[in-house]
Specification:
The complex is a heterodimer.
Chain A (H helix, E strand, L loop, with lengths): L3 H10 L4 E7 L5 H13 L5 E4 L10 H12 L4 H11 L7 E4 L2 H7 L1 H11 L3 E3 L9 H10 L2 E3 L1 E2 L5 H10 L4 E4 L14 H10 L6 E4 L5 H9 L4 E4 L1 H8 L3 H18 L9
Parallel strand pairs in A: 1-2, 1-9, 2-3, 3-4, 4-5, 6-7, 7-8, 8-9
Chain B lengths: L18 E2 L2 E2 L5 H17 L3 H15 L5 E3 L1 H5 L10 E5 L10 H14 L4 E6 L3 H13 L2 E7 H6 L1 H9 L3 E5 L6 H15 L3 E3 L10 H9 L1 H14 L5 E5 L4 H7 L9 E9 L10 H4 L1 E5 L2 E5 L24 H8 L3 E7 H15 L5 H8 L1 H4 L8 E5 L8 H10 L1
Parallel strand pairs in B: 4-14, 5-6, 5-8, 6-7, 9-10, 9-14, 10-13
Antiparallel strand pairs in B: 1-2, 3-4, 11-12
Helix pairs in contact in B: 2-4, 4-5, 4-9, 5-7, 9-11, 10-11, 14-15
The chains are: A alpha/beta, B alpha/beta.
Chain lengths: ~270, ~400
Amino acid sequence: MTSISQRLATLRTNNQCALIPFITAGDPDLETTAAALRTLDANGADLIELGVPYSDPLADGPVIQAAATRALNAGTRLAHVLDMVRDVAPDLRSPIILFTYYNPILSLGIEAFLKQIADSGIKGLVVPDLPLEESSTLIALADQIGIEVILLVTPTSSQARIEAIARQSRGFIYLVSVTGVTGVRSQVQTRVKDVIQNIRRVTTKPIAVGFGISQPEQARQLADWGTDAVIVGSAFVQRLADGTPQQGLQAVKTFCRDLSASITPTLRVTR
Amino acid sequence: MPVNTPHVSLSQQPDTLGRFGSFGGQYVPETLMCALAQLETAFAHYKNEPQFQAELQTLLREYVGRATPLYFAERLSDRYAKPDGTTPQIYLKREDLNHTGAHKINNALGQVLLAKRMGKQRIIAETGAGQHGVATATVCARFGLQCVIYMGIHDMERQALNVFRMRLMGAEVRPVEAGTGTLKDATSEAIRDWVTNVETTHYILGSVAGPHPYPMMVREFQRVIGEETRAQAMENWGELPDILLACVGGGSNAIGLFHPFVDDLNVRLIGIEAAGEGIDTDKHAATLTRGRPGVLHGAMSYVLQDEDGQIIEAHSVSAGLDYPGIGPEHSYLKEMKRAEYYSVTDQQALDAFQRLSQLEGIIPALETSHAIAFLDVLCPQLSGSPRIVINCSGRGDKDVQTVAKLLHLS
């Protein structure tokens, strides 16, 4: 399976902006999550971010909080999530990035956690409550095990911090498009364009923009501003949660295609 | 700023990274890192600035009503008299006599003065029992700042009086329905608000918890409790107290009392957690007794969590203590064996609530009642007539309805 870096490098060669959907594992159940991973992979996703449900998701807005609560109430545990990934990942073209808060990592032990996720086929890791200053141990161990730890940049990050984060981040730079938590926003702040340029100034690593992106027009806007990837979370989670799992999967399929089409250069024929 | 000196004493914490030994730190979304750095710089600058200190000291004296008395609780002491005539000498540090009825205003006042100087016009805070929310609403009214308080719906119910007080003073109280609707969930929601409005808003965190610099800064605003106690002890009997006793939720009243004595190794420091229905049930808030190290609300500390690292809901009859985390400095003092931590149950606290009311004519907060209750355990173990100072951290007016209901049922 390809790494996150390799996948994004290939897409960049083709001048293609990548689509990274996010879903919460175990909402409403892991069978649906497995089906959703396959659906996304077959309908335009280039990489997929998979959220581990957590009791206190500080960086998440109401939609993903509610999904995590449902998943936990349904009995979803990290070990079950990894078992599911182990089954599904070999069939997917999209590398899977795990999104988890820090305490479940600590609870298992950093090294044991990394080994288990690597063993299940996961390629990357986003930890929203682990800023640069606290991340060196995790990154050092993850490098050895072959997991790419992706760090986040926000509109409040100073240029000095952007530079330090860009140096330490693996895979890509996760640019948070808003000061705020995850969730649907009607517009992308224009200052995101400036932050993209500020990141470009200090690194050649890919940039993925996330938080608040929910419409094909927004994704296209970001692609036009030169981002390497767009991450769409709450809008997928909400679609999957509405109605029956079958209706949810159908909605996810349609939405994924729409988003993918919105960021696909017209000249591009096949992947 | 605390600095690393060649001789690092137990009190010279945290280090420049906000670490108390292996505890503390800054486990927050990147969005907040800039605001935390700004806050740290502002605090370092103003804490020793004469004008800031003059304003703070004047307000503490004339608005809050400091210094608070160190009161000798004669009839409470007599309860523990031994046949040989010795008896512990029990003193209450009367933080309940502060304006708004608890120690919380010491910190709220300090932080609001900082926020003003940082040019923040909007203040947010979390609250459990409502005491920190009331203190924050109070200082916001005093300085004409917009104030939003996050409070769990369950706590709003059991602390209805404090909800009314906050609204009366112009604060907006936002109910938090997530989780069990208590302090943990209110804190998470306050942090989400701060992540969103960080550029205009200051978050007045109410305990010695959260990311650096909060545990250090809140301690520094609360250490006036211990400093006054020290001076009053020297004046009254010419020696330091033998034992300091305080309840511990997040831990701000305990750290405030303990910190000026941390390097005086002859002074025993005892913190009392809430055992709820018992530490062997799943309904307690005994974080240091039953938790293990983890990350909650931005800091590494002891945390009540399950085997997957999911945070477990805490339980206590007292809304101010049912928190599944604890300030990192307490974890450090425990690990260094400098402070001792025990727990008492809801029932023991309710008994102590009535006992202090009847023996001294002082109605303590249910939080404070936990510290009072531990005397029944502690005093029989003591020999001679040691001097014990209890932080009487808050008054119980806010709890009378809850207690009336519980006593009627039992």
